[in-house]
C-alpha cells in the first residue's frame, strides 16, 4: 500500500508493515491475532487522516509528483474510452510530452489536450519527463483550432514542471510557441477548461492554461516556478525548496482564495494514486458541472469571460500618500 512512500509517509509504512507481519504470523502459526490487527488498522486510519489533513505546501508538492499518481492518459482511459490521439505539429515533429485528440465525454464531444509523464526511465525518456518542447505547444494549438472550427469544448490536463529549457527547444523558439498559444487561446469561441492534475509549473503550464475555468486537484500545485527553481534563484541553493513552497502560495486552497483557481477537485485520502477510480470520477464530475455552465454561453461571451478572468489576476488597491517633502529638500526651497 505504501510502496515508494514519501518521507512524511514513513509512520504509515511502518504501521502497514506491522499489519502485514501480524497477518503472516497468524496464517503460519494458526494463532488468532485479529484484535491486534484491528487495533493497528484503526491506528493506521487515524494516523493517515492526521498526516494528510495537515500537509505543508512542500509536502503537497511532493505528493503532486508521486510516481504512482494518475497522469493524463490514465484519466482519459477512465473518462473517455473512445479517445483518438492526433499527432504532429505539421512543422517539425511530434512531441510525446503533449498528447491530444477528440473524444466523447459523458455523451458530449470534446477535444482533450494534456501533458504526459512516463512511469519508468524508458517511458520518461520517450515523454521527455513531461517537459514539452515548442512542437508540443504548436500541436496543442493545431488541435485547439480544430476544436474551435468544430465548435466543441476543449479540456486540458496540466502536469508538468515546465517547458523544456534545452538548446534545441530554444532554437525552435519555445517562448514564441507559448506566447502564440496564450494569444490564440484568448480568441477561442468554445468553452475551455484546464485541470491541474499534478504539477503546474511556469510557462509550461500556462501554455495550455488560458481557460474559462481553472480547476486544480486537492494535492496539485500551480506556480510561476518550481520551488527548487525559486530556491536556486533566491537562496542560491535548492535545499531551500520547502521555504520557497511556503512563499510561492502554490497550494490549491491558496489559489482558490486568490481567485486563480475556480474550484478544487477533492482527492481520495492519501492522494489520487491511492484510488485512481475515485479520483477520475471526481475529475469527471467537476468537468461535467463546468461544461454544463459554459456550454450555455455564446462565443463572444466565452471570449470576454476568459479575458476578464485573466485581467483580474493580480489586482491590488492603492492608497493615496501624503506628499511630504524630505527635510533637506524643504530647507532648499525655503
- Main sheet record: 7 strands, mixed
> Which stretches are low in confidence, meaning pLDDT under 50 for 5 or more residues running?
none
Q: What order do the SSEs take from the amino end to the carboxyl end, as H and E?
A: HHHHEEHHEHHEHEEHHHEHHH
* CATH fold group of the largest domain: 2-enoyl-CoA Hydratase, Chain A, domain 1
Radius of gyration (Å) = 24 Å
Query: Shape from CA axes?
Result: globular
Mean pLDDT metric? 92
- Give the CATH class of the largest domain: Alpha Beta
Instruction: Report, as a whole number of angstroms, the end-to-end distance.
Output: 79 Å
What does this structure look like?
The chain is of the alpha/beta class. The protein has 15 helices and 7 strands. It is globular and about 70 Å long. The mean pLDDT is 92.
Key phrases:
334 residues, 2-enoyl-CoA Hydratase, Chain A, domain 1, 2 domains, seven-stranded mixed beta sheet, 7 strands, 49% helix
How would you briefly describe this protein structure?
The chain is an alpha/beta fold and 334 residues long. Helix content is 49%, strand content 13%. The chain has two domains: 7-54; 62-311, Alpha-Beta Complex (2-enoyl-CoA Hydratase, Chain A, domain 1).
Write the layout of secondary structure elements.
Blueprint: H1 10-29, H2 34-52, H3 57-64, H4 72-79, E1 98-105, E2 108-115, H5 121-126, H6 134-150, E3 154-160, H7 167-171, H8 174-186, E4 192-201, H9 202-206, E5 213-217, E6 221-223, H10 227-234, H11 241-248, H12 252-258, E7 263-265, H13 276-294, H14 299-311, H15 327-333
Parallel strand pairs: 2-3, 3-4, 4-5, 4-6, 5-7
Antiparallel strand pairs: 1-2
Helix pairs in contact: 1-2, 3-11, 4-13, 6-8, 10-11
